[in-house]
Design goal:
Low-confidence stretches: none
Order of helices and strands: EHHEEEEEHEEEEHEHHEEEHEEHEEE
Strand content: 25-35%
Largest sheet: 11 strands, antiparallel
Number of helices: 8
Helix content: 25-40%
Number of domains: 2
Oligomer: single chain
Strand order of the largest sheet: 2-3-4-5-10-9-8-7-11-19-18
Distance between the termini: 57 Å
Length: 353
């Protein structure tokens, strides 16, 4: 069977759609008239020669349009679901690096029109299992918000109700804190419910989940994260232990500071699973700026992330260094403001100092 080639909206087509999406408010009637109105307000022509998507009860849930995609008029399906109006920007068959790169391409083009997003980050991982994760960017308005999200077949542009989505996000974070969120302006979504892991076992699981798709997600979003983890190894002594970096690659550093237990200092670090930080450690990716930890772990690239190994190594080393419980670990406050971005990490499930 012949496989359809990948299809991608080019930059002028993305720019045109972005301008139309700013005027779209979800909630169109799920009738032929309502779906035709949706198509018209997106600048598309409805195609009546093919069936339109319907729910099991027969109600319309989208419209097939004729849209310009890579310079040619093609059938293109627009959906309206419980999350709002959804317009695919690409139809691709790709691995995690390919999806991350395609998301990044569309994000750059959209930001030239819409400006920097108000919020960006990852979801509560409702789509767990996709190796490219759940990156999203949101341009917030009072009633409706335009969102760029990662879909199963490529990035999608969404218009949904601002209040409903933000309520759902906060509730999802309360039920199951995951991922991270960043802001360029405003702090409404930065006040997500704080959560601390119950024990080191739960922290290991949450850390592995956070790291699992992080290189793909940060690549897609075009950001680099730096998380410094401190550990209380004895009364009154809580040194910086770990440096976690994620851009196009995941790197973890261990400082082995003076004063930690012998089981985590000197050559004992190598026995735990660390390798000396040498130029050869960065032959597959650029060395992160100001990465000066003497011990290093290569956490892998998009689609090949060694998240579980990294999480296990961090916790194993922390315990060897003298950390007795999850209350002895903390995220350095520097991680919450990097450049002009503000961040929160509900998925880490650690206090911040």
């Amino acid at each position: 069977m012949r496989q359809e080639r990948d299809l991608r909206m080019n930059e002028p087509e993305l720019a045109r759609l972005a301008l139309f999406m700013e005027g779209v408010v979800p909630g169109y009637e799920r009738t032929e008239t309502g779906m035709r109105q949706l198509a018209a307000e997106l600048g598309f022509a409805p195609d009546s020669t093919v069936p339109w998507p319907r729910r099991a009860d027969g109600m319309l849930q989208g419209v097939v349009c004729t849209a310009l995609v890579d310079g040619e008029a093609r059938p293109w399906t627009v959906h309206q679901d419980h999350r709002g109006v959804v317009v695919p920007l690409s139809r691709i068959t790709a691995d995690a690096p390919g999806h991350a790169a395609e998301y990044c391409r569309t994000a750059v083009a959209l930001q030239r029109v819409l400006g920097s997003p108000d919020y960006f980050g990852t979801y509560a991982n409702d789509d767990a299992g996709r190796s490219w994760g759940t990156p999203h960017m949101r341009w917030r308005e009072k009633y409706a918000t335009v969102e760029l999200r990662a879909g199963a077949s490529g990035p999608e542009l969404v218009s949904d109700f601002t209040d409903l989505w933000e309520e759902d996000y906060r509730e999802a974070m309360q039920r199951n804190p995951t991922g991270f969120i960043g802001a360029n302006g405003g702090d409404a979504l930065l006040h997500v419910p704080a959560a601390t892991a119950r024990d080191l076992g739960e922290f290991t699981e949450s850390l592995a989940a956070l790291l699992s798709c992080l290189p793909a997600e940060t690549t897609a979003l075009g950001v680099t994260l730096g998380l410094g983890l401190f550990g209380r190894v004895r009364q009154g002594f809580s040194p910086l232990l770990f440096d976690i970096r994620s851009g196009g690659h995941l790197h973890v550093g261990y400082f082995a500071p003076d004063g930690v237990a012998a089981a985590a200092s000197g050559e004992a670090a190598a026995q735990l699973g660390w390798r000396p930080t040498r130029p050869a450690a960065f032959r597959d990716s650029a060395r992160p700026a100001h990465f000066d930890a003497p011990w290093h772990f290569d956490g892998g690239a998009p689609g090949a992330t060694r998240a579980r190994e990294a999480a296990d190594l961090i916790v194993r080393t922390a315990v060897a260094a003298g950390v007795e419980s999850v209350e002895d670990l903390a995220l350095g406050g520097e991680a919450e403001q990097q450049g002009h971005h503000y961040f929160r990490y509900p998925g880490l499930r650690l206090k911040t100092v």
